[in-house]
Each structure stands twice: as C-alpha cells, then as structure tokens.
User: What shape does this take?
Amino acid sequence: MLTGYIQSYDGSFITVVVPYDNDFLFEKQGITECEVTLLDGRRISAEQRRKIYATFKDIALWTGHVPDEIKAILKYEFIAKKGCEYFSLSDVNMTLAKEFLEFLIEFCIENDVPTSDNLLDRSPDIARYVYVCLKNKKCCITGKKAELHHVDAVGLGRDRKDIIHTGMRVLPLSRKKHTESHTIGQKSFEEKYHIFGIKLTPELCKIWKVKDK
Assistant: This one.
C-alpha cells in the first residue's frame, strides 16, 4: 500500500501526491487507476471495537479456537488482502476499523458462522452487507437460504425469465421473510428491519441466474 498526502481540492477534484520510484513496474503493468482511502483522523469507536470483538467471539466458538487466536489469524488475513500495515485495535483509525469489521462480517456470511446477534445490526454499510448476502444467497435478516425478492415490482403478466434484471432493486430473503414483506408492504418491511434493496449488477444476475441483457 502506498501513502501520500492531499495537495489540493477545488470542490470537484482532489489532487493527491504519492511518492513512487518503481518506474519499471509502473510502466510494465500499465497502471492507470488506483484506490484512495481518505482518513479523517478519527480513531476506532467503542461501538466498532465492541462489534469486532463480538464477531471474534462468534468465530472462535464456531472454530474451537480461542478469540485471541482468531483475532491474530483474521487480522493477518485482512492485512494480506488489503495490503496495509499491521495495526492495533486500540488506536486504529475509524476507516480501517470499518473495513475490518466488514471483512469479519463477510467471513461469517460466506462460512455460515452462527452469531450471537443479527449481522445486519453489526454492519456499518447496509448496501455492502446486502450485496454480500445476495452474492452468497443468504437472507439478509435471518442468514438462512434466500429467495430473490423484487423491491421494484415486476408487474402482473410479466414473465420474470424474460425481464432484464440489471438495475432492478432486490433483497435476498428467506421464504418466511419474503412472505412477510408482501404481507405488510415494502415500506413497512424496510422500516421494521432497517433494510433497503440494492440494484442487481451483471455479476449478481449471473449468480441468481436471471436475465442481465
């Protein structure tokens, strides 16, 4: 991971200066894009720390390891994946803490890790959480096997197999929650569970085997 500083901001564009001296690698790979994380200087919050350690405990119970072992293993996996430096959960910045919590939540979803409370309540980014649930076909409320619930109504008489689904807002819901959403209405359902639908991408359309173009 490279670090630099913000040189200027004109209201529309940020100019970032990053020292870099590997000309051969830069030219060989033809790099034209990069990711930028803005750090606001804030440190990890008590709520973030509580949710992270609660997730360590859940994963530890699932694996049989002690929480400190899980903490060490998953921190290093996250560091390797992100390419960041080693960090301490006592004073890590709030942005990295958020990303690490998302990483732990995604691990639980992908591996069917039972948790002491709903992962939806722990998630710092609902849209990303719903995306990961859709990607793994897990109900975003119960964690059980999901069906595709259309937030954007398909309409009577329309064959769902022929509809272009890309861009349609959906939610992954268990059969029980899917029925409930139709019973109480979409708005009431979203307000009850503090959830909202996200748009299907071509990748998600392939996973759900619905028409994307």
About this structure: The mean pLDDT is 89. The longest strand covers residues 5-9. The chain has two domains: 46-120, 134-208.
